[in-house]
Automatic annotation (TrEMBL):
Keyword annotations: Glycoprotein, Signal
Cross-referenced InterPro entries: Cu-oxidase-like_N, Cu-oxidase_2nd, Cu-oxidase_C, Cu-oxidase_fam, Cupredoxin, CuRO_1_AAO-like
Name of the protein in question: L-ascorbate oxidase-like protein
Domain Plastocyanin-like: 31-145, 158-295, 376-512
GO MF terms held by the record: copper ion binding; oxidoreductase activity
Length: 539
């Protein structure tokens, strides 16, 4: 056995003492570098994973242990997070500033993830320093275990499509604008798999059915996705098998992932794949190419149009996305066997996003609190009991009044069932993501939420996912079973807003939490800030 591999196997054996021994292991090595890219025709500095933009897909199967050794060859600290991967009982591996120290330049860190009881389509991305505007993202798929039925035939092919808005400017310039507490300009374009107009191409055989895993990895804009002359059947949303509704186009909000099936049953030629922005007075789009292997004609003419500013259309589509109750999820039992609608909630939390000025500088807030990071990740500060932040310093309802700065941490109790209502009084579409969890999106509507709004909740087959949209002047309600101990990031996926304070952390914990409920700090955990140089176990 080569020395490098032997050392890696020995290290992993030490790291995974708490994982499920019988679950398989999958090993990945990520070399993170800068590289010159020009997706919109202008050279800029991008972040590459193993020389690729976007980075390589991560393939796994339910319950796999996924070991990812990340080498940071940038000139600044770097951190990767795993959008939708729940990291059960192990928020130390979550890869956001509140839980994990960034990897210093020239160093490496080995993430030890277990995709426990999960299936579906997700992605990874760089979570600090506005690196997301430079790349460093890629797909992350979790396949069902052999013997677990999947509610559709095996497709002939399975493609990842990462769509998102994009700037021609380097991320360092964009970050400098935000660091001066100013708003970013309008984006320059849209990419599909890191390429501009007609840059990406997908080859299919006539008569066969294919799966597309579509994730919006952009910075701000909701996007509408469509394939010229082809219908799409929705089959999965962020780990939940859905009712197989048919759509001609699909709104994908920032941070969201969808799986669709389509059949190449049209005349043999090339067709446009289109992604266009939504809910904006400035309209932009981009295209890729669906290439039939026996094609005799290239794409030509204008790509098909799609919805633009219509909110009602998008709202109705969102309400049509429901869980397939009879389908198996990661386990053999049907997804509908967990009757979430019959559980009484113990707490209602209303969270309102807002924008404003603090000391003449642009900030964004949740319940009037604009998040300010500490010099030590919150999870580590809590573990070593050094303080530096106050748990419970954000109210359960919008207090009104102006924005103030603080390190907002919401205390929640382990093994409770709660309701969160996202309230959006602004004229934008908001998108919220919660790390460590999937939640049931039980209701959304225009206007103001009141207790009477519960009468319209879907308490039977609401979709379970980790990212949800909130339309302008509207609300969205979710239900969550708090069964995953840890410190978890709840954030706006509007990335400039997240950077300037529109996020918080949920500390899911009770005094009765036992060692069986949470993993200890990893032996290879990076330590920074006020805990740099400490032993991994507090004295």
């Amino acid at each position: 056995m080569p020395l490098k591999l032997a050392v890696a196997v020995f290290l992993v054996a030490l790291l995974v003492v708490n994982t499920v021994a019988e679950s398989p292991y999958r090993f990945y090595e990520f070399n993170v570098t800068y590289g010159t890219i020009s997706p919109l025709g202008v050279q800029q500095k991008g972040i590459l994973i193993n020389g690729q933009f976007p980075g390589p897909d991560i393939y796994s199967v339910t319950n796999d242990n996924v070991i990812i050794n990340v080498f940071n060859n940038l000139d600044e600290p770097f951190l990767i997070s795993w959008n939708g991967i729940q990291n059960r009982r192990n928020s130390f591996e979550d890869g956001v500033w509140g839980t994990t120290c960034p990897i210093p330049p020239g160093k490496n860190f080995t993430y030890v993830l277990q995709v426990k009881d999960q299936i579906g389509s997700f992605y990874y991305f760089p979570s600090t320093a506005f690196h997301k505007a430079a790349g460093g993202f890629g797909g992350f798929r979790i396949l069902s275990r052999p013997g677990i039925p999947v509610p559709f035939p095996e497709p002939a092919g399975d493609f990842t499509l990462l769509i998102g808005d994009w700037y021609k400017s380097n991320h360092t310039y964009l970050k400098s604008i935000l660091d001066r507490n100013h708003k970013l300009p309008f984006v320059d374009g849209i990419l599909i798999n890191g390429q501009g107009r007609n840059g990406a191409s997908f080859t299919v055989e006539q008569g066969k059915t294919y799966r597309l895993r579509i994730c919006n990895v952009g910075l701000e804009h909701s996007l509408n996705f469509r394939i010229q002359d082809h219908k799409m059947t929705l089959v999965e949303v962020e780990g939940t098998h859905t009712m197989q509704e048919i759509y001609s186009s699909l709104d994908v909000h920032v941070g969201q992932c969808y799986s669709v099936l389509f059949t190449a049953d049209k005349p043999p030629k090339d067709y446009y794949i289109v992604a266009s922005n939504r809910f904006s007075s400035i309209l932009i789009d981009t295209t890729a190419v669906l290439h039939y292997s026996n094609s005799n004609q290239q794409v030509s003419g204008f790509p098909p149009g799609g919805p633009t500013i219509e909110i009602g259309w998008s709202l109705n589509q969102a309400r049509s996305i429901r869980t397939n109750l009879s389908a198996s999820g990661p386990r053999p039992n049907p997804q509908g066997s967990y009757h979430y609608g019959m559980i009484n909630t113990t707490r209602t939390i209303r969270l309102a996003n807002s924008a404003g000025q603090v000391n003449g500088k642009q900030r964004y807030a949740v319940n009037s609190v604009s998040f300010v990071p500490t010099d030590t990740p919150l999870k580590l500060a809590d573990y070593f009991k050094i303080g530096g932040f106050t748990v419970g310093n954000i109210p359960d309802a919008p207090p009104g009044g102006g924005i103030h700065l603080d390190t907002s941490v919401l205390q929640t109790d382990y093994r409770t069932f709660i309701e969160i209502v996202f309230e959006n009084k602004e004229g934008i579409v908001q998108s919220w993501h919660l790390n460590g969890y999937a939640f049931w999106v039980v209701g959304m509507d225009g206007g103001k939420w009141t207790p009477a709004s519960r009468n319209q909740y879907n308490l039977r087959d609401a979709v379970s996912r980790s990212t949800t949209q909130v339309y302008p002047k509207s609300w969205t309600a979710i239900l969550i079973a708090l069964d995953n101990v840890g410190m978890w990031n709840l954030r706006s996926e509007f990335w400039a807003r997240q950077y300037l304070g529109q996020q918080l952390y949920m500390n899911v914990y009770t005094e009765s939490t036992s060692l069986r409920d949470v993993y200890p700090i990893p032996i290879n955990a990076l330590l920074c800030g006020k805990v740099a140089g400490r032993h991994k176990r507090p004295l």
